[in-house]
Amino acid sequence: MKKKLVYDFPTRVFHWAFSGLFVTAFIIAKTVDSESPVYPYHMLIGLVLGFFVTFRLVWGGIGTKHAKFSDFMLRPVELLDYFKGVFKGSDKKWSGHNPASSWAALVMMGLALGSVGTGFWMASSQSTENVEDIHELCANLFVVVALFHVAGLAVHTIRFREMLGLSMVHGKKMGVPPGEEISSPRVGVGMLLIALGVVCAIYLFKNYDSSSGVLNLFGTQLVLGKSE
Fold first, then answer.
1. At what angle do helices 9-31 and 41-62 cross, to 10 degrees?
2. DSSP, residue by residue, 157-200
3. Beta strands of the chain (E only): which ranges?
4. Is 30 strand, coil or helix?
5. Are 191 and 200 in contact (CB under 8 A)?
6. What is the distance between the alpha carbons of residues 32 and 142, in angstroms, rounded to a whole number?
7. Surface-to-core class of residue 203, CB atoms within 10 Å of its CB (0-12 exposed, 13-18 middle, 19+ buried)
8. How many CB atoms lie within 10 A of CB 128?
9. How far apart are the C-alpha atoms of 165 and 40, rounded to whole Å?
10. For residues 65 and 96, is the Cβ–Cβ distance under 8 A?
11. Dmax of the chain from CA atoms?
12. CB of 63 within 8 A of CB of 122?
């Protein structure tokens, strides 16, 4: 059976950038002392993450068929039926995101924005303990959801004999009904996203003064670290 293209290139770029940036920022935050000059870089990476999530929110409205949020399976009954199918047996397949991955994607994007937003608040003003607690809660919940997502991916792969993870590499799936495939991978948009992500990272790192621990973000002073 021939594989058909369902995930465009920008969606796949976002998926891996989103995963990689969060993991990197989280590892730095959890393994490096807050007094270390390396610690503020988890905040810089978090801002780049915020850029990618912002793009994904826009692409969720104007992107290709299965990139749009309107294609996500978000009705509770669909999620319940999906889990029933996993445990009881079902041959049903989804051309785009299945109900579990639809919910996981939205929840993780929401938690990522929560982490970025609270991190920005702490860096730009007098931080409160509550904001710090919310920041850590969002990050920790993200990890929990991500682990469930990976576990679910493994179960789905075994149960339905579908290498779902590879679809976010090459963008293709087996058994896609006629009319459900997309006609173009939108490579140009994906390359533009990569370029803008690199520009965003360069801008942030160039405008961060490690000696003072201050980031100049379009005229706004963000305190990311302590002066040396």
1. 160
2. HHHH---GGGHHHH-EESSPPTT-S-S---HHHHHHHHHHHHHH
3. 4-5, 172-173, 208-209, 214-217, 220-223
4. helix
5. no
6. 19
7. middle
8. 11
9. 32
10. yes
11. 62
12. no
Q: Which domains are seen in the chain, by residue range?
A: 4-223 (1.20.950)
Instruction: Tell me the residue type at 134.
Output: I
Regarding pTM above 0.85, the answer is yes
The pLDDT, as a whole number, for residue 70 is: 96
87-98 mean pLDDT: 79
Q: What is the pLDDT of residues 105-129, one digit of tens each?
A: 999 999 999 999 999 999 987 667 7
220-223 and 214-217 strand pairing: antiparallel
Q: Decide the pairing of beta strands 220-223 and 4-5.
A: unpaired
